[in-house]
Amino acid sequence: MLASVFVISACGLVYELAAGALASYLLGDSVLQFSTVIGTYLFAMGVGSYLSRFFERQLPAHFLRIELLVALIGGTLPALLFVANATMPGTFRLLLYGLVLAVGTLVGLEIPLVMRILKKNVALKDLVSQVLTFDYLGALAVSLAFPLVLVPQLGLVRTGLLFGLMNAGVAVWALWLFRFELRQFSAHATACVLTLIALVAGMASADHVTTWAEDKLYQDHVVIAQTTPYQRIVVTHAPGEGRPGYRLFLNGNLQFAERDEYRYHEALVHPVMSAYSAGGAAPKKVAVLGGGDGMAVREILKYPGVESVTLVELDPAMTQLFSNQPALVRLNHASLTSSKVKVINADAFTWLEGHAEVFDVIVVDFPDPTNFNIGKLYTNSFYALLDKHLAASGYAVIQTTSPLVARHSFWTVVATIESVGLTATPYHANVPSFGEWGFVVASRRPYRLPTTLPVGLRFLDVASLPMLFDFPLDMARVPAQVNRLSNQVLVTTYETEWGRVAAH
Predict the structure, then answer these.
(1) CA angle 317, 319, 322 (to 5 degrees)
(2) Annotated catalytic residue, options 135, 360, 365, 387
(3) Measuring CA to CA, which residue among 418, 362, 371, 417 is closest to residue 395?
(4) Where are the domains of the chain?
(5) Residues paired with 287 in a beta bridge
(6) Does 220 qualify as catalytic in the annotation?
(7) In this structure, which CATH number among 1.25.40, 1.20.1300, 1.10.260, 1.20.1250 belongs to the domain 2-204?
(8) Of 401, 405, 414, which Cα lies nearest the Cα of 474?
(9) What pTM value is reported for the model?
(10) Helices (H), 27-146
(11) Per residue in 240-255, pLDDT tens?
(12) Quick one: 260-503 is in which CATH superfamily?
């Protein structure tokens, strides 16, 4: 029976993690959202532990029924949240916290009941020691398995259902162990069978539920959906004139739309690549940090003088997709399979710390700082590392969110770059899928506008280039703090500013 404590702890933590992950994924990867889900779950466990005092008789029967409820509610939690967000997005938060409260309360009831059932056969000191040991071991095991094995292999919906089946298995075990103490054995057995049937049916239809919900969520047909240890990758397709074509989403956040991605990537790459060439020598060694879709690399390869491009992308699934899927390869012009390109799947921060290579141009194309893990890539510590890898006459460019929507966030990045001794030259471009979008050139020498650009660009030309560096009053510089590893003010500022948009 003690082994059931391990399962209870593991299952409870999975439901908490799944709810937090889904909330972050569906609601913009909010750190506050994840934190409040965890806090609500722990609070509910306390409520459940308190309520356990009111269960005095037929403890095995109560335990069995609670276990079945946890199996059903917890097991279907991810699927219910997916469906609710797709069909009734206004009710998502209410359902999220309601389900977390329900599961937490039930899990909080379980362990005290197990201890009271076992106290007849085990000394109190041994009972407490063993129960807490199994409880903490279960938490450790599942916290490692959840992101590294379970979600990448099964997805969130099937992972929840798997642990629902484990809870149902504990109920069946309890049914057998206490078969002589249960007054309504047949009713309990029937409930166990029906719960198992429902969860197995859910496992069989999990892919249909996820696909249907994501089609509703993204409003376009989902052609690729893949969960990795790092993120949820979704590619949608909406063909036709005026439609977005292929779109890439990471954890629910739009990364590009085929219709206008050229505006973003031309603005990201050519102001620094052409400015370096204006100095008399073409950039030979270029690094791209992030940008696993290969679009930035595509633009870099328009410069014949480039000898090597090093792409550092954390998620190997991204570079594999954009190297092998024909439709995606067409978009990046097969840039990732070029003989000039070396793909390295690693954390950019760690990779920079472990290498001494110097580059003429570095293109930094990370996702926005929606959490502390990404936020570290926008800190003064990271930019100090970037400086060490930049040639004396080189340029780095950093994609830097919207200076219109997230004005303080944008200028926080500028202030952070300047804090390590680099010259920061901000600019912006209009990308219809995103609105006004910002970039910052970082260099040791003053930035000078290029006088030539590659032939065949669709967005940039020499005449319009100066306008990118002109900031109107509503995007003009404001005082901002330096973003440090020790404070990560950028993540909080970013959440606040983009949260206002989501609220409207």
Answers:
(1) 105
(2) 365
(3) 362
(4) 2-204, 260-503
(5) 310, 362
(6) no
(7) 1.20.1250
(8) 405
(9) 0.78
(10) 31-51, 59-87, 92-118, 124-145
(11) 777 889 999 988 888 9
(12) Vaccinia Virus protein VP39 (3.40.50.150)
